[in-house]
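thought: fold this chain, then report.
action: predict
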Amino acid sequence: MRLGKIGLTLLTLGLLYHSVFAAPDTAAAWRQLLASTLSGEGRGPVLAALALVPLNWGLEAWKWQRLAQHLEPGHSFGRSFRAVLLGLTLGFATPNRVGDYAARILELHARRRLEAVGAVFLGRYAQLVATVLAGGAGLLYFLFAFYLGGYPAAQVGVAVAAALVGAAALLPLYRSRLLLAALALLKPLRRFRRYLAVMPTYTAGELHAVLAISFFRYIMFCGQFLLLLYAYGVRTPLGPAVAAVAGTFLFKSLVPSLNALADVGVRELSATHLFGLLGQPVLPVLSASLSLWVINIALPSALGLLLLPGLRVLRERKSR
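observation:
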């Protein structure tokens, strides 16, 4: 499995290099684009996208606070925000971002840490549901506009299939007992049941709130991407641009990666392809996508390094 992920990452980066960097004079054109953007009218949208970073991760902290309060009443927003930043930092280099789980779990009291695994999974799954629902709608636009325009029967079939996929994505969120029953039937996955056993204890109201926050955060992320695209000179009608952004996020979420660094390539290749269908040049789209990764992942991860000494498990070890 791990070798497969490494191979997929290398293949993605290779395809990205072939489609962008193998072209002549790419470096010079990129330097000119960055210089003109940061010194011209693109500076305002870049600063606006940067200003939305605290709100973006603040929404994630709010979501984690709602989930953590179910396990530990009185869990504060400050502790949640610290756990999110620490999780981003530790997940930056760990396989499958397990560091994100570790940081949030270790910020809770020891007696609830086993249940916290399910709470973290629930929050991440709610974010995936938002990505799948919005991304599915975005991909439907491209399928109808570029591939299935003359095939109405195929359009109906694809739309029905997309609706079924959306319903299937929602099912484990609101019917988690079915998920636990399915895990019990699959021997290799039975060991995960005890970690996810907390999921059915969340009420429908709590799940609605978590899903709503996930959608707000998704909208925030899309808004940042659109601002950066505009800053680098991408001029596409809003509807198709939103569909391309949604499709990009869906591809990035569904393709397995080793860590946050390995995500660089999956999103960029998807974005350049979808916006290429809309007639947009590669370099501005690539620049916007990489800038999104830098301001939303790399910079907050660096900030999280400052909070690492305050991790609860380290404080508990020092107090002994």
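thought: worth noting. Residues 113-147 form the longest helix (35 residues).
final: tokens above.
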